[in-house]
Amino acid sequence: MSTLSPEKEELIKQDLNAITQQLSLLDPIPLGTGNWGRVYRCQEISGQFVAVKIQKTDEYLDQEYAAAEMLNQLPTEYFIKSFGQYKFSDRVFIVMEYANMQTLQKATDACLMPRVNILIILAHDILEFLSHLHSHNLVHCDIKPPNILFSRVEDTDFFVPKICDFCECSGMETMKTSLEIGGPPFYHPPEVWNKMSNYDGGVDIWELGLVLYLLATGKSIHHPSAFLTLRQYGLALPTDIQPKHELKEINKEQQDLLLDKNGVHLKDTIGNDFLQLLSLMLTFDPRKRPTAAQLLTHHVFTNAQFDISHIPIGYAEELGLKVDYKSQHIAQPNIPMAQVARIPLDKPITKEQKKEIIPIDLNTLAQQLGLRERNQFEDLKLMISEGFQVLKTLGEGGYGRVYLVHHPELGIIAAKIMDNKDFDQREWDISGILNKEACPFIIQNILARKFQTQTVILLEYANLNSLWSLIKKRKVFPLTIIRAILKQILIGLSMMHSKGLIHRDIKGENILLHCPPGTERVFLKLADFGLVKLQKNIDQTTQMTAVGTTPFMPPELLIGVEGDEEVKADSKVCI
Fold first, then answer.
1. What are the helix (H) ranges across 424-478?
2. pLDDT higher than threshold 80 for residue 18
């Protein structure tokens, strides 16, 4: 029996419908809800996972997405990337990278104390992100365990931390005159508690230091005195490892800060070097607190004898994490998928600015897609004018250009574009014959249309590259896999032959792979019908010119190659 109120159930129902109908995403699953909105995990038709955050339009701050759009250009992987924003009715839908291993809050809630190597990696990776963020005069202002996600790096045995949620992100110019900042007060540094103003990136440094202190000591955020003492003094080093020129006695309360929840001194658990780093991050005086860039030069990182760019998957349990082996995909952004509000981040946002949506121009879009040729630019212009969203380039050759596109009515499909002079009506007629009887092992063509100078063919999209991508790896496959591959190809060929069609160019590049989202199955699909021969009588042999890719031709066709003469070949033997 559902514990949700009827109003909440109706809201989620509306969300799910909008995600599938408006965004063309599959299998939305609720991940969480709060005052900030609701988050769902969804699948693209390619099989990749994304997260969708939904908020009310009047509660959404355009600066969050504007900041995220800028951050997408940063050369670091340690934050959640945003792919686009959509506004429907009274809601904003933000499509984001999906992190598949939960948050750091699992560890802090359970008062876990992971090994120091994990703490070093966490500190390094998040400081790397903060150094980039601060170099753009932005401060996150809300570094806390729930905003530190983890995601497994695809096809590896490692995972990385990723900072999320830029709702409280603020420009440094604004912070200089502010007395308060957003986010929960527990993680705020002393200067914010004391309303000293003139804040900067040191806010993030303190907040990260406090998160690392929780992990190093295993203390609960409800500890009766530890965090009050931290805000009063910062984290002072024990006298035996203080720099001699800065030697200061520390009182009993300060000494207690240097003990973990079991009463063991931090020198004996995390070592002197990491304790020194932690002390620098939790320096009481913000003027003496090092920047992220300065902290990255600390010897705890430069002298590390292990890879500090990611965490081995074997350490996941120490952070209270479970590995989602079925959801390891991390979607990568191709282009901003919606119009973006260009809002100065260091100024208050007015209602008029909120309404101001400036479209990305074609030159910017072409640059982001890597389209440099004139014909590619014309392709982009044509597809946008016809209501398509171009996501990325799939391939280019003598046959034309192929793009991954999205259309509200057709979903995600492939678009093959060529000059009119290169369009082969016979190929389209062949596709019409094949489309009369659907076969899961043959790429389906959807429609074709001639424009003034270009012809566009829309066809089914296969999301896993081609069989050649597997062949060229020279990997030996089990017999069971080879049988499955052979069976699917033969079923596709059998269907073609039953229609009197001979493909004549069977090769790895023309056998595409597709995994329907949520099935964990792979289908092979025959593609490229430019050389198909139509038999007038399928029970007899037929005359054929030797065409196709020479290494894959059968002997009976190669006999006549030299003189370019026609030879007789039975279709079943030829293929």
1. 425-435, 467-471
2. yes
16-18-21-24 Cα dihedral, nearest 10 degrees: -80
Task: Look up the pTM and report it.
Answer: 0.59
Looking at the structure, tell me whether residues 93 and 141 fall in a common domain: no
41: β partners:
29, 51
Residue 361 resides in a domain: no
Average pLDDT over residues 398-419: 84
Going by C-alpha positions, the residue among 431, 457, 456 that lies closest to residue 442 is 431
Q: Do residues 110 and 179 both lie within one domain? A: yes
Run of H or E residues at 276: helix 271-281
Q: What are the residues whose beta carbons fall under 8 Å from the beta carbon of 481, sequence distance 6 or more?
A: none
Digit-coded pLDDT (tens) for 186-219: 999 999 998 888 899 999 999 999 999 999 999 9
Residues 433, 502, single domain; the answer is no
Structure tokens at 299: 């010897």
Kindly report the length of the chain. Answer: 575
Q: How many domains does the chain have?
A: 4
Could you tell me which residues are annotated as the binding site for ATP? Answer: 53, 416
- Name residues whose C-beta falls within 8 Å of residue 465's C-beta, 6 or more positions apart in sequence: 512, 513
What is the four-CA torsion angle of 101, 107, 110, 116, rounded to 10 degrees?
140
Q: Enumerate the known binding-site residues.
A: 53, 416
